[in-house]
Amino acid sequence: VAFKDLDVTVLSRHIVPYSHLKSEDPHHNSSLHRIYPHLLIESSVTQEESLDLTKFKQRRDILRWIDFFVKGPDQLSLWDHTTGSDPGTHKVPQNNINFSNVTDVLTVTEATVPGLYLHSNWHWTLTRRGDFDPTVYSPPTGELPAQRLPKAIIIGAGMCGTRALLEYLNLHPNIVAEAREMNFFNDEQNLVRGLTWYRASMPLSYSDQVTIEKSPAYFPSWRAPAEIFRADKTIKLILVVKDPVHRIMTQAGKLINPEHSERLYLNTKGTTPRVRKDSNTVSGGLYAQHLERWLTFFPLPQIHILEGQDLVRQPASEVHELETFLGVPHVLNHYNFMYNTSRGFFCMKPVYRPFRTRCLDSNKGVKHPRLKPWVSRMLYDFYRPHNEKFFAMIGRRFNWTLEISTL
Ligand SMILES: Nc1ncnc2c1ncn2[C@@H]1O[C@H](COP(=O)(O)OS(=O)(=O)O)[C@@H](OP(=O)(O)O)[C@H]1O
Known about the structure:
It comes from Elysia crispata. It is built from 13 helices and 19 strands. It is of the alpha/beta class.
């Protein structure tokens, strides 16, 4: 079982932000400390080097090619690919590191693990963590991590905070999130690959952890509810929704030229402009229409619905409710979320690494174009009956009105 570019921190007097450590590897989000929470793996570099970020970026590529192999609850092996530019052809033999005798800190150097090539300015420190914090999470005794089908899925709605929600939940030691949008249940090309392929795309987890993925394209898909039901009738579904007019503006903010976003939702061809009912941008906010299909397969209590702006404003309490829904212990609280004034959003403080705050990518929470007042009114008028139907279906109301809107 291979882990790539896992949770590696560069320690120096200047801590390098996590964003600089992120690789293109889609698995970067599966972090070793989540699978192996009793180990802390750090790589240190001289202060001089860490200051030179250009140089550091090159070093990042080196980091990418160190694989970790789990050998047993207390054993890990490193496979070092850093010796050549082509990782496939320059593997050095597997090196086993046994933690059972390590009580405190093991610094891995070429001398500790014969045959391991390490860049002269780097060394790896592996620390047993179980002794510090077994109350947070310890894997079931004697169990090896395995890939499992999701026990929960964030089905949408796109643009409503699904990424933030997934990343927030991923802070939890009993939740293991797949970073990629799998688009398995809505896409014929993926469905034909079968559940075995889908399972093999999931991160490693222990039996007491909840594997979760998010694919917002499931919510409006006609196919996804039936396919998910066929795969697992008991799966827990999570739906985050927000004011559909705000949702349109999130989509508009993603355009290269957001000022020209009207074509996404307005038909200006005739004498009087109309809301474009045929556009996916508009229909994505017709929550009642989509939910109706899901409710033919799943009872309402199996779908946890939350409001996107509530998630933006009060992540800790929203996540607390989700912990209950997912049946995992209450671990996350307001200490795990820190408001970042320059971003205008909460950023995350991992349970095991509270010193490392991480925000969502800068393409989340972007500036929106302003709506002309008459367009705003037209959109609110259009969505009002659909919203009312949605509120009646879920037995809850949200304050999605023109008067409240900040657009
Ligand atoms: N913590 C935090 N940081 C940044 N952004 C946050 C956060 N929490 C929620 N959001 C909101 O997420 C909105 C994007 O939604 P999605 O992630 O569902 O979009 S996508 O469907 O995956 O493209 C995005 O919408 P915009 O603000 O319009 O860009 C954010 O409002």
